[in-house]
């Protein structure tokens, strides 16, 4: 499960965060982690990543617009199709695989046999001898201790646990299938099963949640002492149950000011707890940044399998599979086309780099551009309105956005795009 962000709301002229970070020693934590982040470590490695989309969930969360189905009847067919897709596409990379990410949907909903089948296909079709990270997204109520141990035995070494909130009322509002108690138990069980690398998801901007309740959520997350946390702002996406509730006036969406307050509290509290804010939605202890996501942000090749999964060839071609379970499985079975492609030109690639790198602590590597393009980008940076310039740092090699201003990233990126 991943949420899109709603940073577009923070583009009001003159709107800007207060700069309180230096008082908390935040920037020094950030610099330490940047020096050795996965993002920097992998930039010179020719390794590939794999993403596997499992498009099934137990129930539909009210805010979710990802591709999933609560109808489980297609599961066996879908797993077969995903394994066939791996075989069909194995020639797309000769690089050893560095990371595998099971997302969705809810990969934790798969039976042991289905999970084994996918791992067998991975081993049969790809070189996994250099895999460093295998992450599996799980909902707190989707598994037993035995299942966790089984995933561990397959090679999964990182769990991403969709906690979202430690308050039952919030979980009911979001129509999550688990309770607050499940969340804490899940982390305990994961440790019992031997998982050292754990990341949890939190959501801020939850309607009807007070600031004090958000503070309590952040403190509970810190108390769990995981080495990584992802925190997303709840976005009211069209065609979701939440959108309907907001439109009807049943639920009131949070204001930008409330979101700002929660965001700043989150990253100050995490900084104090040693969790550095290394990407707009991600926090990690030293050396524990997510390897797989860092591959995306640094433009490495990745292969996405399953309906709606996206791929990138590491050069200039993106592709994405059809976001429809039946059509995907039928097309794979009958050897028909099940994906679309897009070729990126030099400007598209540069803009993508700007969009991803300016959301990270490392920032954008302007020194690597040819002289003409570097001048164009830096001129645009200098020509930005002052309130946006105040949000940016720059040195001889890179420029970036101060993390306390990352909610303005969309507005800044639009100014510097070519
Ligand atoms: S668990 Fe909820 S948020 Fe995650 S993919 Fe399923 S419906 Fe969406």
Description:
With 418 residues, the protein is of the alpha/beta class. It has two domains: 25-297, Aldolase class I (TIM Barrel, Alpha-Beta Barrel); 345-418. It is built from 16 helices and 15 strands. The chain has helices at residues 26-35, 38-42, 75-89, 112-125, 145-154, 168-173, 180-192, 211-224, 241-247, 256-272, 291-297, 325-333, 346-357, 371-382, 386-389, 409-416; strands at residues 48-54, 97-104, 133-138, 158-164, 197-204, 228-233, 276-279, 282-284, 302-305, 310-312, 317-321, 339-343, 364-365, 392-394, 398-401. Strands 7-8-6-5-4-3-2-1-9 form a nine-stranded mixed β-sheet, sandwiched between helices. The protein has a three-stranded antiparallel β-sheet with strand order 10-11-12, with no helix packed on it. Helix 3 packs parallel to helix 4, helix 3 packs across helix 12 (325-333) and helix 4 packs parallel to helix 5 (145-154). The longest helix has 17 residues, at 256-272. The radius of gyration is 21 Å and the shape is globular. Mean pLDDT is 88; it is low at 1-36. The protein binds iron/sulfur cluster.
């Amino acid at each position: 499960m991943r949420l899109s962000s709603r940073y577009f709301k923070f583009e009001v002229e003159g709107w800007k965060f207060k700069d309180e970070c230096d008082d908390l020693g935040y920037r020094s934590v950030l610099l330490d982690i940047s020096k050795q982040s996965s993002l920097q470590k992998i930039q010179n490695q020719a390794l590939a990543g794999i993403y596997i989309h499992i498009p099934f969930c137990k129930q539909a969360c009210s805010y979710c617009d990802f591709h999933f189905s609560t109808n489980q009847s297609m599961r066996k067919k879908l797993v077969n199709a995903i394994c066939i897709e791996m075989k069909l596409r194995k020639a797309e990379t000769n690089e050893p695989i560095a990371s595998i990410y099971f997302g969705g949907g809810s990969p934790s909903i798969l039976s042991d046999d289905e999970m084994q089948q996918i791992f067998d296909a991975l081993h049969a079709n790809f070189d996994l001898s250099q895999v460093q990270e295998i992450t599996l997204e799980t909902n707190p109520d989707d598994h037993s201790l035995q299942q966790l141990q089984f995933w561990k035995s397959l090679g999964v070494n990182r769990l991403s646990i969709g906690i979202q909130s430690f308050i039952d009322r919030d979980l009911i509002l979001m129509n999550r299938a688990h309770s607050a108690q499940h969340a804490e138990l899940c982390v305990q069980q994961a440790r019992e099963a031997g998982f050292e690398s754990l990341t949890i998801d939190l959501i801020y901007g939850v309607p009807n949640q007070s600031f004090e309740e958000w503070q309590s959520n952040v403190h509970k997350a810190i108390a769990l002492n995981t080495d990584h946390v992802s925190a997303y702002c709840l976005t009211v996406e069209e065609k979701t149950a939440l959108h309907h509730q907001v439109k009807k006036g049943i639920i009131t969406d949070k204001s930008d000011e409330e979101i700002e307050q929660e965001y700043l509290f989150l990253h100050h509290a995490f900084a104090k707890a040693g969790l550095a804010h290394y990407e707009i939605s991600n926090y990690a202890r030293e050396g524990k940044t997510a390897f797989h996501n860092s591959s995306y942000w640094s433009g490495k090749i990745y292969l996405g399998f399953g309906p709606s999964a996206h791929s990138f060839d590491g050069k200039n071609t993106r592709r994405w599979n059809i976001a429809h379970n039946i059509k995907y499985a039928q097309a794979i079975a009958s050897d028909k086309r099940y994906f679309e492609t897009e070729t990126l030109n030099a400007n598209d690639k540069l803009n993508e780099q700007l969009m991803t790198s300016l959301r990270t602590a490392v920032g954008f590597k302007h020194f690597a551009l040819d002289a003409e393009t570097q001048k164009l980008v830096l001129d645009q940076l200098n020509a930005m309105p002052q309130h946006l310039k105040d949000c940016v740092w720059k040195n001889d090699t890179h420029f970036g956005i101060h993390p306390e201003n990352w909610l303005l990233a969309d507005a800044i990126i639009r100014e510097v795009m070519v």
